[in-house]
Automatic annotation (TrEMBL):
The keyword GTP-binding does not apply. Signal peptide: none annotated. This is Zinc-binding dehydrogenase. Keywords: NADP, Oxidoreductase.
Amino acid sequence: MRAVVLTGHGGFDKLVYREDCPTPRPGPGELLIKVHACGLNNTDVNTRTAWYSKGVTDETTGGAFDTAEEEDATWGGAAITFPRIQGADVAGTVVAAGEGANAGLIGKRVMVDVWLRDWNDPLNMDKCGYFGSECDGGFAEFTKADQRNVHPVECDLSHAELATFATSYVTAENMLNRAQVGQGDSVLIPGASGGVGSALIQLAKRRGAKAIAMASEAKWESVRAIGADTLLPRAPEDLKTALKEATGSENVTVVADVVGGDVWPSLIDVLARGGRYTCAGAIAGPMVTFDLRTFYLRDLTFTGATVVPPGVFADLVGYIACGEIKPLLAASYPLEKLVEAQQAFIDKKHTGNIVVTLD
């Protein structure tokens, strides 16, 4: 089958397009899926470049890092096995079932839950893996998955549109769950034009919260179109003043962040007393200045959000089927142009998400 194979940590030269990869065979309890489209995400880039390594302190650039160590080069702080087919955000059709798997799903259009679990101990985060990291994923014509990770979905969206959801939206929903966002909250969203950012806008609005989006002014129209209540510059000189001018208040109850970097202290400074900060990324840089006085004197709550509990992905599929959330497809590329697609993803000139297609 055709696939793009990651051969090691490094630059784009480590992504190799092949047409002679063996088609996977579903084992007991597994389903074989014909991949129609697969979305891109930061985990693919960060794993390839070994950005997760503690030896790296720079922002995500897409290039190799000389200071990275292979021993802690993945999201889970461990080594990865090569070669590896990446790609978590699969939209496909079940074409075969392994022993004991549900053959009734053959022919069904499906999405794949990106979190791999020990189903004898499903709540144990230490036993979780990520699709396309701890196993082969969807940058290939076929992939396989445990049937408990495979979710049929009925909707009128194209395969490419369906492939924009999995990682971004389940990450965003987990962030909002962790911060207990609900009716009446005001949620500040840095990087609001990205995949997770645009998902946060829609999912916060779904809960009855106000979405305050930070994005470059060139993207304001597209960000406003998905429901942002307020638009702020990507990195205002004085965030507190900009927020007050736009909303009438210099505080928010929640910050949902995947950006980090130099702007981080100002994000924390606009949290109201008792506010919540939730984080699932640091694309602008993982090292920040943290004033502990702001943290404890304002009774703030900080939560990290990576491993998603069971059930959240099924909730997401339900939102899609009911039309409660909309895809934001920025661009699609054929599989053989994955490197070009990933470069566009890294350049961040788009709004929403980018996918590769295989049909």
